[in-house]
Amino acid sequence: MWNQYYNLKLTDLDIQKGHHRSKVGGMWDEMGKKQLGFMKEMGLKPQHELLDVGCGSLRGGIYFIKFLNEGKYCGLDINSSLIRAGQAEIKQGNLTGKKPMLLVNDHFQFKLFNKMFDYAIAQSVFTHLPTNVIQRCLISMEKVLKPGGKFFATFFETKDNFTDNPVNQPGGPITYLDKDPYHYHLSIFEYLIKDSSLRLSYIGDWGHPRNQKMICFTKMEQPAPNRDIKGEI
Length: 233
Known about the structure:
The chain is an alpha/beta fold. The protein has helices at about 10-15, 20-25, 30-40, 60-65, 80-90, 130-145, 185-190; strands at about 50-55, 75, 100-105, 115-120, 145-155, 165-170, 175, 185, 200-205, 215-220.
């Protein structure tokens, strides 16, 4: 399949031993805290509705659930065993009272949550997806973001717009044009949202230990022509 997490199967014993924490990139506490800290800097408040795309076993989700008010966290992932691990993390953290919503889905059917979102994040998701699947995500996201809502996503960047050379990313990973882990030139995201109501802003470095860069898609009131992708969010 197009994503390495499709065939990942964790047993109940794997989850009990915490093996799921290493299956989603490790750095469990470091990256969980980093995601929450970043989103708070971007304006996330406890009363906001948050969608966590590719939430996995809730590396970031646990921190978001603790911070947000009851019923404000929604997480979606393609892998059922990672979602089971996330549910175990919720119980272990005594967070069931926060009533988070978790969904297993491989088509980004965010409408199934039956709500609109103020914020969304996809941490280390686009790094594993081909272009057309990213576009499906963006099309679905446009439908569930409130006007003014923001969708933050990380990606591996290449500065070369027309080459098939692998990229040695600072921090260790080698990324590719056409296989996982993928890299992208920033301009591809502007192309993917052309004629939509989403506007792209480049944030870039946000302190990710493996050099994933951050971008932001903001939902506008009306579809807008392409704009300069650099600037304030």
